[in-house]
Design brief:
The protein is α+β, with helices and mostly antiparallel strands and about 675 residues long. The chain contains 26 helices and 7 strands. The chain has a 5-stranded mixed sheet with strand order 3-4-5-7-6, sandwiched between helices. A two-stranded antiparallel sheet has the order 1-2. The chain is globular, with a radius of gyration of 25 Å.
């Protein structure tokens, strides 16, 4: 067998993985050797001196598993961004084995005894603040992973974790297949009326690539409301698209609906085994929210005003639809909402979102918007490295430098949708920053922008622009990390805090110094008209009710699945019936506004890390709205504010309590009023 490129650290700049050398055949041997090496390293730790020391136990744990980390970071980025049958097969095999490996680590009695000893003596160890927090966090992690269970409990926990890992992998694979299978094939170009010519051409190319020559293919994104619903004038085609979207994985032949029920039951059983009444209580305990009561109190404040806003919007859209179609009895359905919303928005605010696209060309938004804003706030500069390659031909590599010219790390951009990539947008780390290990960050942003026809520019929607800024906020969180221990690096923070820095970064898309810098017409170079921003802001406020209800419905659906105290309560439960009842009980069952994700394609919670945590987006938005108010209050130059935000929060990762980090620059605890004002929920 040829040399395995994972067996040694990469010699490329910043230890960028040597993608040109990596093949599918390298992953499984690297996983197997990586797990074996880490277990040997842990055996060396537990066979150490009679009394544990910080260096020979906790620091040694931080150094362990280097090979396993290298291969895991590359492989699990690839399973989302560019998978294939070989990768899927490896993932199906390795996921339960990895779960078993981590159980072996966390359930090692001798290892936990050493960690517990350090935890009990932590006040005597003369540690700095980061070291002290590391001991405390390791102790908490091991306890929450079952270290105090008896032998029977440990055996059952291992079985549950293995089943859950396999089920999550199966859910992810099913979802990609179901989404590709639900692609809507269109027979005539006339049916695509309303789409821009470039979008029609892209649909034709998509159909050609999928084996439907002479037709047009509308591939689905991993949300309920597909973006094309705002543009298609053909109501029947809109209905087909919406029903294809909502039906993925459900019904008699749907696999993911049944699988979600099983995952929820397994999680409920595991929570009870670990001493918690339900999975949500288990998850929230280790977040900034701390208690289910805190989450429910916040959500309870939002539901009623959000529904009231949405009902007002629905009445306005229905009036417009009946007037325009001359049908006094026309009913507003889910496939109508986005289309008529754009109609009303265009009439009231003189905004045609499709006409905005020429102002948002990808390259210009990226360089003169996203990167420029980061330079404005933090002083960094970004330069493309065409000599370095990513894991796919479309991946671009950039080197990031600090204000003084010091190299910070690498940023990889993977912007376009493809059949081998899961839906949505996300950030991954290929290498984490750590002073202990001497590493700088290498981070990836994955988006799903529709790829334009060859030789044509990629013109973005306003939502695409927002996503680009949002995901780069995650990237900055990783790149600015300045911690000693990899346990705390970058985005290693509570789930209900991790979205906060990325949401803050969205503010730059409309900042008066940033927007005119990138929003220029692709053909004329003319800036976007000066008055358009105010009209766009007003138009955004018009759709607040819809967006908030769509999000809250998904959040409360997640919450319902994970507040179940008894796994036997899920015996013979039908996912669709469960959804209907959960949304009805929550007071947010609006037929015309389906949840942003239905159960069968809710990847965040059934194959990602957001189980009982989808609330974190709006929980983080409380911090975000409050911080944007601070950032833009005009009391201090933006560059100075940026330096404070970076030093006191972004660079700290998880090395300090997140809410303490917030208070350190804000001067007080977060307040919800700025969020309520932003979302139009004060009244």
């Amino acid at each position: 067998m040829t040399r395995n490129p994972f067996f040694e650290p990469s010699t490329l700049p910043y230890q960028l993985p040597p993608f040109a050398e990596i093949g599918a055949e390298h992953y499984l041997p690297a996983f197997e050797r990586g797990m074996a090496e880490q277990l040997d390293e842990i055996s060396a730790i537990t066979s150490g001196g009679a009394e544990a020391s910080f260096a020979d136990t906790v620091v040694a744990l931080e150094r362990s598993g280097a090979l396993l980390t290298r291969v895991s970071n590359v492989f699990f980025n690839l399973t989302g961004s560019d998978t294939n049958a070989d990768i899927d097969a490896i993932e199906a095999e390795i996921s339960p084995r990895l779960a078993a490996h981590w159980d072996t680590v966390h359930l090692d009695r001798e290892l936990f005894a050493r960690i517990e000893s350090l935890y009990e003596r932590r006040a005597e160890l003369d540690l700095d603040a980061e070291g002290l927090r590391l001991v405390e966090q390791y102790y908490t992690r091991f306890v929450r992973s079952g270290a105090r269970l008896d032998d029977d409990g440990r055996a059952r926990l291992r079985a549950l974790n293995g089943e859950l890992a396999a089920a999550a992998t199966e859910f992810k694979h099913n979802l990609l297949a179901d989404t590709n299978a639900a692609t809507v094939i269109v027979d005539t170009a006339e049916e695509l009326a309303g789409l821009a010519p470039a979008a029609v051409a892209a649909a034709a190319e998509n159909a050609q690539s999928l084996g439907h020559a002479g037709k047009w293919a509308l591939s689905l994104q991993n949300v309920s409301n597909q973006p094309v619903l705002a543009e298609l004038t053909n109501r029947e085609l809109r209905r087909r698209v919406m029903e294809a979207s909502l039906g993925r994985g459900l019904g008699e032949t749907g696999r993911n609906g049944r699988l979600a029920v099983r995952i929820a039951a397994l999680r409920a059983e595991r929570a009870r085994l670990l001493g918690y009444p339900d999975h949500a209580t288990y998850e929230v305990e280790n977040q900034t929210a701390k208690t289910t009561a805190a989450v429910e109190e916040m959500l309870g404040r939002l539901v009623a005003p959000a529904v009231a806003n949405a009902e007002r919007e629905a009445a306005e859209l229905t009036t417009a639809m009946r007037s325009d179609t001359a049908d006094p009895d026309a009913e507003l359905h889910s496939w109508d909402w986005q289309f008529w919303s754009e109609k009303v928005r265009a009439q009231q605010f003189s905004i045609d979102l499709e006409a905005l696209r020429p102002y948002f060309e990808l390259e210009r938004v990226l360089r003169d918007g996203v990167f420029f804003a980061a330079e404005l706030a933090y002083g960094i500069t970004v330069h493309e490295r065409t000599d370095l390659i990513g894991y796919h031909p479309e991946v671009r590599v950039f080197e990031v430098f600090d204000a003084d010219g010091t190299a910070l790390g690498l940023f990889l951009g993977d912007f376009f949708a493809r059949p081998s990539k899961r839906g949505g947008a996300w950030m991954n780390e290929l290498v984490s920053q750590s002073r202990l290990l001497g590493t700088s960050a290498v981070v990836v942003n994955n988006l799903n922008i529709v790829k334009p026809p060859k030789a044509e520019p990629a013109l973005l929607t306003w939502d695409n622009v927002r996503t680009l800024f949002h995901e780069f906020g995650h990237a900055l969180h990783g790149l600015f990390s300045d911690v000693r221990y990899p346990f705390f690096a970058g985005t290693e923070v509570p789930r209900d805090f991790v979205e906060f820095p990325s949401q803050v970064n969205e503010m730059w898309m409309t900042h008066p110094e940033v927007l005119p810098h990138y929003a220029r017409h692709i053909e004329t170079g003319a800036p976007m008209p000066a008055d358009l921003l105010d009209r766009m802001a007003a138009a955004d406020r018009f759709g607040t009710g819809f967006r908030t209800v769509e999000y809250l419905a998904a959040t409360l659906l997640d919450w319902s699945w994970h507040r179940i105290p008894d796994p036997t309560a899920l015996t013979d439960v039908d996912a669709e019936s469960f959804e209907e009842e959960a949304l009805r009980k929550a007071g947010i069952a609006l037929e015309a506004i389906p949840p942003r994700y239905r159960t069968s394609y809710f990847a965040h919670i059934f194959s990602g890390g957001y189980a009982a945590g989808y609330y974190s987006y709006i929980w983080s938005e409380v911090l975000d709205a409050d911080t944007v108010e601070w950032f833009t209050d005009g009391t201090t130059p933006i560059r100075e504010k940026g330096e404070t935000f970076r030093r006191k929060l972004l660079s700290q990762g998880g090395s300090i309590d997140p809410l303490e980090a917030f208070t350190s620059y804000r001067g007080r605890a977060p307040e919800i009023a700025p969020l309520l004002l932003r979302r139009g929920l004060l009244n």
